[in-house]
Amino acid sequence: MFAQGLLASEKTVLCFAARALIVFALLVFFLLSLFVIWGVARSGFWKDDPKNWRRAFGGDPPSGVSIAHSQYWRTAHFSYEEGWYFELKVGSEQRRKLIRSDLVPVEVLENARIDEPCPDRPVWFVPKSLQSYEVWRSEGGTGNYRLFLDRATSHAFVSDCQY
User: 19 and 95, same structural domain?
Assistant: First the structure.
């Protein structure tokens, strides 16, 4: 009934508008599908994968640093969620370079337990009592970056997460 009172040119405009709306809806659906597929393709959980350092830091490990163990995860969530753990073997020069300028030392009290904000901490990460490590964290307590330097060996443990 509504269409009977319209002129032919008005019907053409309505038909064009309906088609444009359908094309727009299909385009939005297509783009959202690509976004979801891209997120799923980049998400996962990797243990001792040689690509974990690149996933966490965007490059190759510095010279003088070898990776004993690693664990990395990234979700397919629309916001950026990731976490990682590394056990490193480092020389004395590289050991000091791990202490970034935004880190502050953490006083470790007797019988203290690891206060790790990141989930799924592997058993190889910081296996000794906390008194066995120099402990560093992101300044201000707002970041989740943690650095544990073994006092007796050349091992260092680093972790971070964002969610």
Answer: no
